[in-house]
Amino acid sequence: MKNKKNKSFRVKLIFATILRKFRIFKLKLFGYDVQYSTIIEGSVILDKLYPEGIHIGANTLIGNGAVILSHDHCKRVGNNQPYLTDTYIGKNCFIAINSIILPGVKIGDSVVVGAGSVVTKDIPSNSVVAGNPARIIRKDIVMNDFAALENWSLEKGWF
Ligand SMILES: CC(C)(COP(=O)(O)OP(=O)(O)OC[C@H]1O[C@@H](n2cnc3c(N)ncnc32)[C@H](O)[C@@H]1OP(=O)(O)O)[C@@H](O)C(=O)NCCC(=O)NCCS
Q1: How far is the CA of 120 from the centre of ligand 1 (A)?
Q2: Shortest CA distance to 93 belongs to which of 149, 44, 16?
Q3: 127-130 and 39-40 as β-strands: parallel, antiparallel, unpaired?
Q4: Contact yes or no for 127/136 (Cβ under 8 A)
Q5: Per residue in 54-97, pLDDT tens?
Q6: DSSP assignment of 85-111, as one string?
Q7: Which of 53, 61, 65, 92 could staple 39 via S-S, CB 3.0–4.6 A?
Q8: Is 73 a catalytic residue?
Q9: Nearest of 69, 67, 134, 57 to residue 103 by alpha carbon
Q10: How does DSSP classify residue 52?
Q11: What are the CA-CA distances from residue 19 to residues 13, 23, 50 (Å)?
């Protein structure tokens, strides 16, 4: 019974991985700067006006419902064109569900953005931010290549 469950989990994992890689392939075709190790869940919204302005590092996971922007509508430049700007998210980050990353923000490596946060300013590497506007709630965190915390465990909490 346990073996059967394990097998079906492995099959699901293989399909999910193929789907994820295909999603990244499509995003790259549209001009987004994303990596094959980046995980972008199904209902993430990436700016459609300026795809080349979205940069997401290796192993970073973007949770469902997150929105990442690289243009502003109300700020106009030149011949009444919307303001385009580059938005960066580093490697090994976890951007939790329903967060919003505003245009032009630079998020470092190994950063956790808490669920539902609105990131309005640059975030240094190795920190947890949360809230609207997002504020640093924890520093010196360590993330691995699965965008998971290395210095938190169920037994010890944060260490
Ligand atoms: C950010 C997160 C990882 C928790 O980090 P943490 O360092 O353990 O945070 P704590 O629970 O100790 O909370 C610290 C403070 O931040 C606040 N906080 C934590 N997460 C928050 C969030 N998402 N939005 C606003 N405030 C938040 C807490 O209320 C607390 O405030 P207080 O000090 O005034 O009481 C977690 O809250 C989170 O958002 N996880 C994402 C879950 C998710 O998206 N799951 C889907 C997986 S795809």
Answers
A1: 17
A2: 149
A3: unpaired
A4: yes
A5: 999 999 999 999 999 999 999 999 999 999 999 999 999 999 99
A6: --EEE-SS-EE-TT-EE-TT-EE-SS-
A7: 61
A8: yes
A9: 69
A10: G
A11: 10, 6, 24
Token pair 């073996």: residue: 3
Residue 135 makes CB contacts below 8 A (sequence gap 6+) with 129
The answer, yes or no, to whether any atom of ligand 1 lies below 6 A from the CB of 137, is: yes
Q: Whose CA is nearest to atom 27 of ligand 1?
A: 130
Name 119's bridge partners. Answer: 101
Would the CB of 127 count as within 6 Å of ligand 1?
A: no
Is residue 131 in contact with ligand 1, taking CB distance under 6 Å? Answer: yes
- What are the tokens at 119? 């990131």
**60 and 91 Cβ atoms separated by less than 8 Å:** yes
pTM of the model: 0.94
User: Is the bond leading into 82 cis (omega within 30 degrees of zero)?
Assistant: no
- Phi, psi for 126 (deg, rounded to 5): 60, 40
Domains of the chain are 2-148 (2.160.10.10)
